Amino acid sequence: MVNEDIDRFFVMLNGISDYYGKQISKNVMRLYWEGLKQYDYAAVEKAFWQHTQNPDTGQFMPKIADVAKYLKGRTVDQASQAWSKVDKAIRLVGTYQDVVFDDPVIHRVIEDMGGWISLGNKTEDEWPFVQNHFENRYRGFVIRDETPEYQSRLIGMANAQNAQNGFPLNLPVLVGDKAKAEAILNNGSNHVALEFQTAASNLKYLQ
Asked: What is the pTM of this model?
């Protein structure tokens, strides 16, 4: 949400409070705003509505965490979706090329697991254990609501050799949401020179 949404957010929150027969102070409304402002307003409004329809918990005034649960989905689901992107990229792109995902946590988890090249060296027999390891690490970051430091790109074999020999880097393949992946490419930690940035329009894209 943006600052222009704050008034209608407070109107909605007052309406929700009236529905549950609760009074809500300005300080508490501000807490809700701070806890949820990173999300789109329409999505927040929908999440409040979904909570009211929940037969298990809908009889209680939703807390910030209740709303965030609908916005984020269960951590298990998030980790599974993230792994699907990784699995697809490994199979369709491989580890010869660099990749940039649309999720910084994916980058950090893969780094912690030894890097993109190492991931590609796993066998099919090892793959279920790799998936489990990835998803557990990913869930840890989500549960802590933490966006860790991450590399702007996951280095493949070609650019690992190029960097070692002082050659220009090849362009990476973007995986997932193009705009988000480009933002990660531009905002991540640069452990190697990024000569490719002036040619961003030529980036490959895996949806």
From this structure: 0.65
